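Entry type: protein chain
Record version: 2
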Amino acid sequence: MIKKLFPIAMVALTIASCGGNAQNNAPNATKCDQNAAADCCNASSQVSDYKFLDAKEKAFDGFTVYWLKDNDGERKFPFDLFGNVADDIKKEVNMPDGMPSSISAYLIKTNGKNILFDAGLGQKANGQLLNELSKVGVTPEQVDYVYITHFHGDHIGGMLTPEGEKVFTKAEVYVSRLEKESDLGKGEQAVKMSEKYADKLHIFNFGDRLPEDVLAIDAVGHTPGHTAFKKGNLLIVGDLMHAMALQLPHPEYCANFDGDKEKAVASRKRILEYAKQNGLIMSGMHLPY
């Protein structure tokens, strides 16, 4: 059963300049005040307050989370994937050979239940999710819930076998209403997955509390119903960032994967500030491993 929570008030984006002045909701809020000292734009000064999951296994109050690396080998994104990145920003990031990324999923063990967040690429695309689950002692049949951030293939490809059957035969599956009702939700892969799990598929709205006290948070922009999930002090941000080295200090840059770039930027800024203000530990499906 989904428990309804009144929509949480996200903290307004406020980035302080080096001189201590605030810029509220400005389009270039992540960039330094042009009147500030030259070293103000050092990225490290802007990102030091954020917290990220830093281990394959981490215990929280009442649950343990496991980081499941789905891609085989290394994964990097070039700057040209993010449009016209300014030369000074490229120099600041200093990763000319590509910015490290990943394709990841997460498993939470809590109260004897196994919750999977996204299902990766799938076996057809050499996804490693089932191997990763095996390493933490979980079979597909032991997954109780699958919470889906969005319907892109590197997030739902692992929901079906190469033969098109259910992988997680006993799991209850949750996806946001906006994602399910969008054009993406009407795509071939999403429809096949939804049909196979029809008897187990549940639709939620942003602000709902899902089983085992997981809060569904509006992260729209990357896709129409893109969702972040919060449990305790952990915030799973989905595809909020594809190249953290660039987008954490400069969230105004979008990967070309983002469907609605204006909304994606707004969600990225809002959720990053929410996480920082509340001391949350973030994990994401494309964070560097």
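Comment: Residues 261-277 form the longest helix (17 residues).
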